[in-house]
Design a protein that fits this description.
By secondary structure, the chain is of the alpha+beta class. It has one domain: Aminopeptidase, CATH 3.40.630.30. It is 32% helix and 34% strand. It has a seven-stranded mixed β-sheet. A hairpin with a 2-residue loop joins strand 6 and strand 7.
């Protein structure tokens, strides 16, 4: 039975498993949007271990099938900083389960933010299904257009 658990990246094995997942997932996004050198593909095991993000992993039969990372902004809002699902596990509801779990894990966070590349329509649709709405766009590089999406407090 699948479980979601917080990932301990002080373990080099865990960080390596996350690195492999991240590269498999973000290579697919890179192909989808036509940007072969997406910044997440530059991460190393060491840079993941040095990250201050909180990671949760979706474990399926002992395999890391997906992961989500979040940070708290200075204003107390939450920021989804990474979302990844291994291509072998696409379209199984894993990303949605990770979002729901993360929001339950941090119930004191009422406002959430995420960014998605404008051409990544599956990611945008996922976040919209979870109450996020596009608010602004920005260009971290000439070939990348990011959309900032926010999920306001639920009443």
């Amino acid at each position: 039975m699948p479980t979601i658990e917080r990932l301990d990246l002080t373990s080099k094995d865990n960080a390596g498993e996350l690195w492999r997942l991240q590269h498999a997932a973000y290579r697919i996004e890179a192909e989808l949007i036509g940007v072969p050198d997406l910044p997440p593909l530059h991460d190393t095991i060491e840079s993941l271990q040095a990250s201050e993000e909180t990671f949760w992993g979706y474990m399926d039969d002992g395999e890391l099938a997906g992961a989500i990372a979040a940070e708290r902004a200075k204003d107390g809002s939450g920021v989804i900083s990474r979302m990844m699902v291994h291509p072998d596990y696409f379209r199984r509801g894993i990303a949605g389960a990770l979002i729901a779990h993360m929001m339950q894990a941090w119930p004191e966070v009422s406002v959430w933010e995420v960014t998605a590349e404008a051409r990544n329509l599956p990611a945008i649709a996922l976040y919209e299904r979870h109450g996020f709405a596009a608010e602004e766009t920005f260009h971290p590089r000439e070939d990348i257009t990011m959309i900032t999406m926010r999920r306001p407090p639920t009443t």
